[in-house]
Design brief:
It is a single chain. This protein is α/β, with parallel strands linked by helices. It has 2 domains: 150 residues, Aspartate Aminotransferase, domain 1; 240 residues, Type I PLP-dependent aspartate aminotransferase-like (Major domain) (Aspartate Aminotransferase, domain 2), CATH 3.40.640.10. A 7-stranded mixed beta sheet has the order 2-8-7-6-5-3-4, sandwiched between helices. The chain has a 3-stranded antiparallel beta sheet with strand order 9-10-12.
Length: 400
Amino acid sequence: MRRVYLDNNATTRMDPRVLEAMSPHFLQDFGNASSIHEFGQQAREAVETARQAVADLIGCLPKEIVFTSGGTESDNTAIRGIAAGHSGKGRHLITTTIEHPAVLRTMERLEEEGFQVTYLPVDRQGLIRLDDLRAAVREDTILISVMHANNETGAIQDLRAVGRLARKKGILFHSDAVQSAGKIPVDVNDLGVDLLTLSAHKIHGPKGVGALYIRHGVEMKSLLLGGSHERGRRGGTENVPGIVGLGKAAALARKGLADFDLRVRSLRDRLETGLLERIPQARINGSTLRRMPHTTNLSFRGVEGEALLISLDLQGIAVSTGAACSSGSLEPSHVLKAMGFQNRRVESALRLSLSRMTIEEEIATALDVLPSTVQRMRELSPLYRESRNRVQREGQRAHS
């Protein structure tokens, strides 16, 4: 059975060149990056080389990069760090209804601790309205957190406009860019963000390592206390192999941005167009204009998304019904619900996401298997058959 992997927003396959760069730091160059002997200094040099590579990817200074255990820690550090460090100025924060759970759960916890949070709605394209943001800003607002690209739909927010508003109002601005950094150009100065989250395993790096950009001069409290690691901003011995892997992945991603936009977008469009042509009543969820080049989210009327996912998996095709961190949850996608879709459309949705390692044969296989699988499942659904028959009867009456 040919295995087809179309769940790259959950995680990506590690690039062999990343593994090759990491390998020496497990066995030969195993020193602690905080030690002053040669072993330690070799590790320190590797960490700082990686820091430069990550900084180059997003257009910042190396000293503005803090290495973390991944996107969740980076989001928590950014939001809780600002909340704790600026609570004397205000206790109001703004975010959106479609954020990753790492942001939403953190905001909810802060509400339990006495902070106030405004959750901006989105339209049916999955985009916030700048007027809603302007209306939400208060004198005591200390942070705006808006994700760059949504992990379920790929919709891209206009961070430049948000950044300009935040700067004008003197409010700090954080963005979760886990799904965009390394796939489309991301420049922190151009976007106007003060804090930005990214993760290695979304760009063919190792799991368990990420980074948080903190603009020079931004004051915040540390989430993890311990030694003076990461210039005192994140205690704990550095994960040298993981950091090296992130650095290598960042360097490779930066070189491959143009190819990603052209080749991967072309494969995504071929997949999406083919499915829409071959599967009646399939619909795209979210913006098709402001969207990542590798993501499509489709609903298939009359089919339950989770059952479709399982059926495809049995045929060797890996897809998703939403965020990987929410798998096992019985709740419908909070992102699609926030976009105003009814439960039937939400529950019939699949997310298909590509990477620079996706090949044409995988797209061809998906186009061969998915339509027949949807049709078979529809034929087994009495609700779908009744709906189809009702539409046919109404059509016949209209022409009689």
